[in-house]
Amino acid sequence: MSRIAKPHRWVIDEPDIPFEFTVLYEDERIIVIDKPHFLPTTPRGMWYRSTALIRLRERYDEPQITPAHRLDRDTAGVVVFVRDPAARGRYQMLFQEHRTTKTYECVAPARPITRPRFGTIERLDAPRVFPLRRRSRIIKDRGILQAYEEPGLVNAETVIEMGMPAVDTADTTAEPIAGSTAETVGSSVGTVGSTVENAASDSRSTMMRAYTLRPRTGKTHQLRVHMNSLGLPIKGDPMYPRIVDRAYDDFSNPLQLVARTLEFADPYTGENRRFVSQVPLDL
Predict the structure, then answer these.
(1) 22-165+207-276: CATH homologous superfamily?
(2) Burial grade of 125 (CB within 10 A; 0-12, 13-18, 19 or more)
(3) How far is CA 150 from each of CA 27, 67, 138, 160, 186, rounded to the nearest angstrom?
(4) Which residues of the chain register pLDDT less than 50?
(5) pLDDT digits (tens, 9 = 90+) for 95-128
(6) How far, in Å, CA of 130 to CA of 124, rounded?
(7) Signal sequence: where (predicted)?
(8) Mean pLDDT across the chain
(9) Which helix (H) or strand (E) holds 94?
């Protein structure tokens, strides 16, 4: 027997988020949306009605709608919601069992990467730096905003590729990683390629380019942590490398991370589904 959705609670003086989602697809079982930056997927903290879930329920007058997965409030892109309670389990299991294919796009500095403290870097087209496979152990403690990496069994894997060229086309080629194709890194290891510990003072640090990210796992903040660990923090990230205290109504600098494509075999029809976000990146 399916659970009955709880009635909407009334929220007084809830901050408004002035961005709307676009419906990419719908049928009798699911609704797929293109979520904008800043809009939470589900109620949390000060937001209830200004969330994708509650707006969907109110738009369709279907209180049983449930998310099949989630995106961070800061991240834009494709999100799947289940409207048929009997189908909820099958669609949610697609994501829990990693039977979906996701591609993200982001904007980050166009400069040599640094060697992370933990985990491994594997060049997939040596001697070129990109594409590379980044593997590490990521932990997210309850009540702590940032996730972090530590030594131990790997639980997070991301393939990172170069995307569009940098805004400033001068010196856009990443420098080679020294050493073997697959490198294990620890807390005592320095930078990869040229020394860039003082990247903030390097003129190249202002140059930006797009990257394509292909997560093989789904740890909290995985893409943001992996990019930051390489010395390539995603543009507009209020969490990495350091927490930026923003006003709740400051929408001036969105995180340049978009869940661009989502693919899976429909668990009912077997048909291959592919959805593409149209949210632009700001290079």
Answers:
(1) Pseudouridine synthase (3.30.2350.10)
(2) exposed
(3) 43, 31, 7, 20, 9
(4) 1-5, 8, 169-182, 186-205
(5) 999 999 999 999 999 999 999 999 999 999 999 9
(6) 7
(7) none
(8) 86
(9) helix 88-96
For residue 10, the model assigns a pLDDT of: 53
Phi then psi for residue 222, to 5 deg, are -55, -50
* Contact in structure between 202 and 190 (CB atoms under 8 Å): no
Query: Helices then strands (H, E): number in the chain?
Result: 3, 13
DSSP summary character for residue 276: E
Residues 6+ apart with CB under 8 A from 98: 216, 217, 218
Q: What is the pLDDT of residue 248?
A: 86
pTM: 0.84
Question: CA-CA distances (angstroms) from residue 222 to 20, 104, 159, 225?
Answer: 26, 12, 11, 5
Give SS3 for 213.
strand
CA gap 30, 213 in Å, rounded: 26
- The domain spans of the chain are 22-165+207-276
Structure tokens at 95: 């994501």
Q: Which H or E element spans position 57?
A: helix 52-60
Sort 164 into a burial class: Cβ within 10 Å, 0-12 / 13-18 / 19+. Answer: middle
Taking the C-alpha atoms of residue 166 and residue 189, their distance in angstroms, rounded to an integer, is 28
Amino acid sitting at position 116? P
